[in-house]
Amino acid sequence: MTNITVLLLSLLIPILLVIVVLFVLRKVSNKTKNFWTLKHLSIGITAYIAVGLFALLYLSFFGDSSIQVLSKSELKKIEKNIESIQKYDQEYNSSFLTDNYKKKTWETDFLGGALPVIINNADSNLNIRHLNNDNIPAGKVLVTYYQFPAIIDGIDISDKISLPNVYMSQNQLWIEALSRNEVNFHRIKASLGILDFNRKVDLDDDYPSTIFYLSSNFIVIETPRGTDIEDSQGVIQYLR
Amino acid sequence: MHIHLDSTTPIYIQIAEWLQHEIIANRLQADEKVYSQYQLAELFNINPATAGKGLTILLEEQLLYKKRGLGMFVATDAKDRILLKRRSEILTKMAQEIVLEAQRLLVSDEELLALIQKTQEELK
Amino acid sequence: MQSLTNMSFKTIVKKQVKWKAKLYSSALSSLIILQVIFGALLFSSGSASSGHGRGNLNVQFSIYSLDMFLIISALWAFIIAILFTTKSYRIDDLSIISSRTSSAIANILVLILYSFIAVLIMLASYYIQIFGLSLMEKDSLIIDKLIITPSIFIVCISSICLFGAIGLLFGYCFQGPSIIKISSIVLLAIVIISPIIFPDFVNLQPFIQLPDLLLSGFYVIVSILCFTLCIWIADKSEVSRK
Amino acid sequence: MNVIQCEKLSKKFGRLHALQDVTCTINGEKIIGVIGRNGAGKSTLLTIIAGFLKPTNGSCKVFNENSFNNIQTAANTILIDDRLSFSDYLSLEEILKMGADFYPNWQSELAYRLLHYANIDLSAKHQQLSKGQMATFNLVYGLVSRCALTILDEPMNGMDEAIRTDFYRAILKEYIAFPRTILIASHHLQEMESILEEILLINEGTVVTHVSVDELKEQLIALSGPSEMIESLLSDIDVYAHQIVAGVSTAIVDASKLFITEEMLRTKGITKSALTASEICRYLTNNKGSDIDAIFD
After folding, report:
1. Is B4 a domain residue?
2. In this structure, is residue A67 part of a structural domain?
3. Order of strands, edge to edge, in the sheet holding D57-62?
4. Where is the domain boundary, A62, A84, A102?
5. Distance between CA A56 and CA A44 in Å, rounded?
6. Considering CB atoms only, which of A45, A59, A64 is closest to C130?
């Protein structure tokens, strides 16, 4: 019942709007009839269609958007990659941390043999890992942010995820995920959404266009061997 | 002569009379082609069928004759016969009317005759 | 007896279509205005949107599809088809060689032609909207599919045509003989009331899931049915000039 | 072939009997006046002939085919009345072009000349014309289409005196140039009487008489004379109207039923005079014996 009501309402409102607009147009056209000849009308209509055609031509030649929709094969490749990242991460193997995914590095000094880490992560899914690095001199800490692919509806949104804030204060390492941010995309789909939506349920299920590994963004804290990490919140995992 | 569209005399009779008048007045000579019904219709702004009827009257009285494919022509003796007929028919009728009107107006016979003679003198 | 003019029915219908297509073009301009209005209203939001929340990131997709333009065009077709049968349009047919049958057939052909042009106008509106969007929102524009597929094109034509056919039938019912008028009102009442009483009875899901061409085929068949009824009613109708 | 053949034609609008048992035949290319008073059923008959309305009973055949919704009738018939309308988007010139496209016998040149003569601007729109101009344009449209059956329903409504006279002549000339059947319905019999060949007189949905104009004129005569003489004469014949002014009676009677010689009339002091066609139509469609004076008595 409610479904039908919603459907009826959603149809009724455009119907009313269309009727109102047509009614107003008829009233107006009664006044403009005398100088709107058939020739003007047909020229107007043809011109409108021509403008539409030019818009299409412009869009198809110059309208390349910076954001690409990933093809199925690309999606498959990324899915495989992410699976391997997940696997290595679960094995605490650091080999998935390649330079490809490195986004930002912070280098700071600290005093003493232990580094207290305070993570202000709120509700974000920031993953924090610790790694011992022999190449770092004592008293230094290297914090690196890695962003792994995050795909929603075939779009790689990893660039849109904002970086965390990392800083030293009162000899403590603060890691703050930025507060919520919103990204808006305008997607052009020259087809009928009603049909696509209803058909997707059955036909398009075996190809997930959304791949979003929960741990798609990593903060890796690298310290010289022997440095203690004081993690009072217990969210840091240790990699080999 | 005029055709009176609103008069009580049928138009086709008026047409026939007009043609006779034209013959008497020598505007239509013997053996000359007369107006076709369409010419008459345009001339007097009347229906061609009505004009045709007027012509038919004259044809029946043999004042006109028909040449197949060429139209109607004035009979050779048309003028004489019209004059003869007018004298007998029209003049008699007119005389009748004059006499009746004179009776109504209480004009005596002598007065009427005098009037006719006087009119004759004047129009000579 | 002068010879009578012998014009074939086909020639007369052809001439009528030629003139009606020209004369009714103000209907097409009203479609353009409608679409510009709705295109402007939906400029920032698109026909549909979907949101995804992941961690502290909220991703919002505004989807610009043809849906709204198609719905507007279909409603427009419905209304102008009714208008085609109203007095002001109907009387004009009496000034030229026409019978009710020929003018009904001509109206139908014009409607089909206009459905085609309406799809072109609809696509023009769509691409103009996207063109505007591409200038204003260059960084967040994602082109999934720019060119319409032929099968969707056919679905659009057939659905506009279907709505037009229903509108035309509607209009003809109301100017037909009184028996048809009354029975059509009863039928209409049933059609409106039945989904409210038996909501489960009306299930459009299976129809929508048909492949495009089958769906258009179904629309075309219903349209033809409506058109046939229109011609049948027009054949029986008297001219009412009141 | 009959142009129009109506057989026991009846038309009801709800309870109203617009036409009852109309039987008439029209053949040949004639100009026929359809005369009748307001609401007599003239327009209904003409619209049935044009195929717009369906007879409730009986049949109406035009060119040997049922006229209702018949494309062949439509191709050879044109009905001109004050409800003739054209699309608001067409100028008069474009309307003429449209007419030329549809009607094979169309006379473009003539249309331009007639409209020029009537001072009608071709770039105007139909709905902008004044009442008289619109009537003139419609009449021109009907004439230049040269349909085998041209029906003019009150074609001169709203035109001024001068243009009426001109256009009666235009009808006649067009008829002579291209003979066809022309039906003209009008209240103004007087002014078009001369161009008519026949008259179809309609009253209260039935055909009163269908004769040639000349025969119509012979149907009724007026007798006037001393009252007592007229009274004695009227006892056994139909009287259409009877008026007494200062002892002199005038009676309108059916000429075919008056079996009395002119001699007899004259001796009784009665004069016989003919009536105009329009007077005869008026008397024939009056309820017998009644007139407006009776209302005030």
Report:
1. no
2. no
3. D16-27, D2-13, D57-62, D65-66
4. A62
5. 18
6. A59
Q: Is the pLDDT of residue D181 over 90?
A: yes
For residues A39 and A103, membership in a common domain is answered with: no
pTM over 0.90, yes/no: no
Which other chains touch chain C, taking contact as 3+ CB pairs less than 8 Å apart? A, D
Q: Judge C/A contact: 3 or more CB pairs < 8 A.
A: yes
How far is CA A125 from each of CA A31, B111, B112, C51, C205, rounded to the nearest angstrom?
63, 143, 140, 18, 38
Give the CATH number for residue B29. 1.10.10.10
For A176, which DSSP code?
E
In a shared domain, residues A121 and A231? yes
**Which chain A residue has its CA at the smallest distance from C130's CA?**
A188
Q: What's the gap in Å between the CA of D194 and the closest CA on chain B?
A: 5
Contact D89 A33 (CB under 8 A): yes
Whether B and D touch (3+ CB pairs < 8 Å), yes or no? yes
Contact A66 C139 (CB under 8 A): yes
- DSSP output for B60-114: HTTSEEEETTTEEEE-TTHHHHHHHHIIIIIIHHHHHHHHHHHHHTT--HHHHHH
pLDDT in tens, C201-230: 656 667 777 788 888 999 999 999 999 999
Instruction: Note whether C4 contacts D148, CB cutoff 8 Å.
Output: yes
Query: Given this model, what pLDDT does residue A1 score?
Result: 44
List, for residues C18-50, the tens digit of each pLDDT value.
999 988 888 898 899 888 988 888 887 777 777
B106 and B50 share one domain: no
Residues of chain C with pLDDT under 70: 1-2, 54-56, 195, 198-205, 241-242
Best to test chain A binding among C32, C38, C58, C63 (most A CBs inside 10 Å):
C63
| CB contact set of C190 (below 8 Å; sequence gap of 6+) | none
Are D125 and A36 inside 8 Å of each other by CB? no
Residue D153 C-alpha, separation from nearest chain C C-alpha, in angstroms: 14
Pairwise CA distance, residues D270 & D262, whole Å: 9
pLDDT digits (tens, 9 = 90+) for A71-100: 778 878 888 887 777 777 777 777 777 777
Confidence band, pLDDT 50/70/90 cuts, at residue A24: confident
Query: Which chain D residue lies closest to A38 (C-alpha atoms)?
Result: D89
C-alpha to C-alpha distance for C167 and C187, rounded to whole angstroms: 14
Task: Verify whether the Cβ–Cβ distance C37 to A183 is below 8 Å.
Answer: no
Give the length of chain C: 242
- Is residue A46 domain-shared with residue A83, that is, in the same domain? no
In DSSP terms, D66 is beta-bridged to: D61
Contact across the interface for C146 and A188, Cβ inside 8 Å: yes
SS3 D207: strand
Residues A90 and A128 reside in one and the same domain: yes
Q: Residue A203: its pLDDT value, please?
A: 45
Is A24 among the domain residues? Answer: yes
- pLDDT tens track for B35-74: 888 999 988 888 899 899 999 998 998 888 888 888 888 8
What average pLDDT does range A115-122 have in this prediction? 77
pLDDT tens profile A42-76: 899 999 999 999 999 988 887 766 777 777 788 78
Q: Is the ipTM of this complex over 0.85?
A: no
Contacts of A36 in chain D (CB under 8 A): 89
Same domain, A82 and A113: yes
Option in C56, C127, C144 nearest A52 (CB)? C127
Domain count, chain A: 2
- Domain span holding position A217: 72-179+188-238
For residue B62, give its domain range: 11-76
What is the reported pLDDT for A123? 56
Domain boundary, last residue among A41, A62, A83: A62
Contacts 24+ apart (CB under 8 A), A56-61: A56/C123, A56/C127, A56/C146, A56/C147, A58/C131, A59/C127, A59/C130, A59/C131, A59/C134, A59/C143, A59/C146, A60/C146, A60/C147
